Amino acid sequence: MKILILDTVHGGGVLADKYPRPGDDVTCVDVYKVTPKEEIDRLKGKGFSVSTEVPTGEYDTVLMPIHCPDRFLEGIVYGERKFFSQAVGELIEDGRFRIEVTGVKGKTGFCCLLAHMLSTAGKKVLVQTSRGRGEWTDGELSHEEAVSIAPPSMLTLPEGDHDAVICEVSLGGSGKADISCITNLMEDYPIAAGTRKASEGKMSILNGKINIVPREEVEFWKSYGTGKLIGYGGRIAVIGKPSLGDPLRIRVDYGNGFETCLKGSYLALEYLYAAEMALEVCDAMDIPESSVELGLSSFKGVPGRGEVSFSEGRWKVTERNPGISVRSVERTLAILSKMGSLKGAVAVLDPVNRKVCCKMDQKGIERVAAGYGVSMTVTDASGRMPSLPESAGTLILFVKEGYT
């Protein structure tokens, strides 16, 4: 068979290792021309043809990410086209209990919170997120090995006797997880040069077992013909007025019901959606109420994801992730406004990596900040922070990193 694999930077190299059978003729294409030379040399060393342009001709099978535009297929003839998620679903074989997570916002925070809650129940948990991959030990990732979260990365999971494996996936999933989670579809943004939508990619994560989605999106995801759908939300109520840096008191509808506090070291209000979905996963896994309460109350947040600290006389909130957008900035500012923490606030936007898959809407972000009365400074991506006046209030740092 002649196989064409597009996009060696988003998992194409992994599929080149796993998908072909002996004797297949494999061509790999670095369509975005950013694949490291070491990876290109590795693929060539395995006998694959590698180029930056799609060679014309006839192919039996084309493998490509769903976000890859069809324009790359112009001038070729092929028998079948499979998106990476579909190929992963055909290849993945893992006897461990696996939870796959996709969505527009909140994936990493949810994965880490869920890992923490399961670990307090005595589960040995392996976590793979945009922050890294490793076992969850003593409230954090024991080893943050940098990995891609493109679907093919799940074919490289390290072996082990884990009770649960939690995988954050950028667009879609294998469709073969024990529990599939979609955090939200806040922005059904265009992908593949505007020819498809994000929902078309994310729906591939849905399986024939248990699927958990926002309760307001249940009807939408039903249209994709899935298995059991559970809508999350409505189990947590905030008690009293939230205050930046203080523990957040909540009432939780789980088991017999209980009250507890979330730590003030992170924007707990920002994590409530993650906590709501984690409760549904724990319920499906029969996690005891006592472990759920301990998991929620002892979670410290994810460094750089709504991280809260106090230094030099002012509060600092750090949002560091690839998903910085108009919507995410608005969400953070709305939460801080609810806490009464925007008086004199200054926001700094740092596009630390300009080579991102999703262009940053700087003007849109600045308009949102102005709407909340927050001054916005944009750095030159050098990592240098601007000096702040002594009268400045809360410092809000938005760091837009590159996608993996």
Average pLDDT figure: 90
Oligomeric nature of the chains: single chain
> What percent strand?
25-35%
Backbone CA Rg: 22 Å
Class by SSE composition: alpha/beta
Termini Cα gap: 30 Å
Helix content: 10-25%
- What is the name of the CATH architecture of the largest domain? 3-Layer(aba) Sandwich
Largest sheet: 8 strands, mixed
Could you characterize what this model shows?
With 404 residues, this protein is an alpha/beta fold. It contains ten helices and 23 strands. The protein folds into three domains: 2-84, Rossmann fold; 92-298, Mur-like, catalytic domain (UDP-N-acetylmuramoyl-L-alanine:D-glutamate ligase, 3-Layer(aba) Sandwich); 305-400. Helix content is 23%, strand content 28%. The strands form five sheets. An eight-stranded mixed sheet has the order 9-8-7-10-6-11-14-15. Strands 3-2-1-4-5 form a five-stranded parallel sheet. Helix 1 links the parallel strand 1 (2-6) and strand 2. Helix 4 crosses helix 8 (289-298) and helix 9 packs parallel to helix 10. The longest helix is centred in the N-terminal third of the chain and has 14 residues, at 107-120.
